Amino acid sequence: MEFEIVERVECPVCSSRDRRKLFTIYDDRYGQPDLYTVLECQRCKACYLREAIVPDQISGLYEKYYGYSSNGPSSTMLRRSSFPWHSLSFVRRLEIGKQWEAWYGYWTRNRALDWQIVNGERVLDVGCGYGHTAKHVVARGAHWTGLEVDIEACQAIRGRGLECIHGLIETADLPNEAYDVLIASQVIEHSSEPRTFMKNCARVLRPGGRLFLNTPNSSSRYRLAYGQAWIHWFVPYHQVLFSPQSLECLGQSCGFLVRAYRTETPTHWANLQRGYSRPLRGEAGAWANKNTPGMLQPSVSSLKLRLGDLREGSGDALVAELVRL
Ligand SMILES: [Zn+2]
To answer: Ligand 1 centre from 234 Cα, in Å?
Structure first.
């Protein structure tokens, strides 16, 4: 192994040792050549890697590989799934071919999930990337702060006059109960210790504060349909993948209650999935972008996805609101 690892002997979510081996795979996006074993917890249905890279080597993994593939989907692109499309104007939705996604969100949403952020609240975006949530939070009259481990992204945000703290939620020196709302979009699956991640989220939130979380859904129908070619295995960057059940279990053990959740399949995720082809081990993946600029094609494919998502819990993304007890 290129990086030092420790073998997980139990589920990082519920500690059960009852698990099933799914398969062994390699990095199909950035070319890290090692093999990783994907396990499924038989108790909470979380999926996780047997091989956990030791914490002080993870930054080395990301510096060497992550985002350095010229044709890989950027982390910003993957993060878009959390975007509250229904908050956009109708014209803007049409422009970006997202109308069905927006309407699905409108009809199926639990309103609690709509980033109900109000004037004056203190919001921390955990793993904020380049800070695309900031303008939506600021537009609601709330105060936005980013937390990001990528120093370049941090500096770019600061250059826009916004506050961005450099670091990880697991280790950053943040005050207790300092925030009303946390956003964590496409982040927790990267954490090798999700309980440490969640306990620190609970620590920095005030009691009654909300965590808006978005992560791939390990019970997605796409996982079943595509098997090893499912794009969200994304080893070794994704360490743990959650089902609604395992998220509930994680929340309970870390001081949270899952107030609401839904699952949905972002259109661009489905497009990436269709464009997937497995590279040779050690090579970066080629990602065909099947998005067409026209209006009709994205609209038809998005409508099909929304109909599929009506099957309870089968969407590719798990969107949840958790309340800090
Ligand atoms: Zn488990």
So the answer is: 20
Q: Which of 29, 87, 82, 91 is nearest to 237 (CA)?
A: 29
* Cα–ligand 1 centroid distance for 226 (angstroms): 23
* Mean of pLDDT values over 218-242: 96
pLDDT at 190: 94
241 CA from centroid of ligand 1 (Å): 11
Pairing of strands 163-166, 47-49: unpaired
Q: Taking a C-beta distance cutoff of 8 angstroms, is the pair 55, 4 a contact?
A: no
* Full set of structural domains in the chain with CATH: 5-324 (3.40.50.150)
**Cα 151 to ligand 1 centroid, rounded to whole Å:** 33
User: How many angstroms separate the alpha carbon of residue 324 from the centre of ligand 1?
Assistant: 21
Dist. CA 3 → ligand 1 center (Å) = 25
Q: What is the pLDDT of residues 71-85, one digit of tens each?
A: 333 443 333 334 444
Dihedral (C-alpha) 236, 169, 317, 58: value to the nearest 10 degrees? -10
User: pLDDT band for position 64 (50/70/90)?
Assistant: confident
